[in-house]
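Record now logged for everyone:
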Amino acid sequence: MHNPPAELFQRYLPNPILRAENWPYRVNSVFNPAATLLADGTTLLLCRVEDRRGHSHFCAARSADGRVNWQIDASPTLRPDPEHHPEELWGIEDPRITYLAELELYAITYTAYSPDGPAVALAVTRDFKHFVRYGVVMPPNDKDAGRFPRRINGRWAMLHRPVSGSSAHMWISYSADLHTWGDRKQIMEARVGGWWDANKIGLSVPPIETEAGWLVVYHGVRRHAAGLTYRVGLALFDLESPDKCLRRGAEWVLAPEAPYEKSGDVDNVVFPCGYTLGADGDQLNLYYGAADTSIALVTASVREMLRWLEGQDSSSL
């Protein structure tokens, strides 16, 4: 009998790493964190925190090793500001962080939520204490946005997920100044039928630059009789033409299996929004929301992820 192949992602055994009870003030849940490495090597998670009204804000948690001894800000790090940004009336959700070395800025894309629907908004910071909001850069209904870390052919680029009817696909847009975005193009479609990622897909973490191309971790949503299941898949895009998909995995690579992923405020959800890379440039630490209730961690090898994609049938695009 042959042993099954090893999973690409390995769960950190003390998962979840952060829960509502760890917070220094009263909250309902913590999940869907953005992640980045600070200059001193500290891991910073910008966590989505839902209060007991059901509205979300962001709160930073810091750890020397990205696993334990988290130091959590004593109060919200970034609150909704509906007085100046009415698009944030019902909260701010699902941040992604990209460090823009050229500008020496951390760019945070997030979902601004209001009666008009979810919209992509942008804020920038140097220290995660002072923020400058750019406001809405993609109007409703649009979300799941993440930026590339450098200009491509002279322009900034962003992946995002507008919704049209019952379908939601991945798009790319470009900007010269981070404020005005255009030249939108659909780059990857949700599959149809019985696939794990049928009808609705979206970016998970910001694109990861590798020698082989931009490695994209994305989520797919499967609707079934018992509700929805959120799983994770992989795709690869061309470095200088990031609208060109080179490879797309046919199978999901991470799915709700552990009890904390299968049961919570929203059952059967693994939803990554942030990652860090080890000093070797290969070990990937993927931080994700589990069942919209807690934060967990899986690790993987970028080389192994690319090798897995090489073995995928190109017809799965």
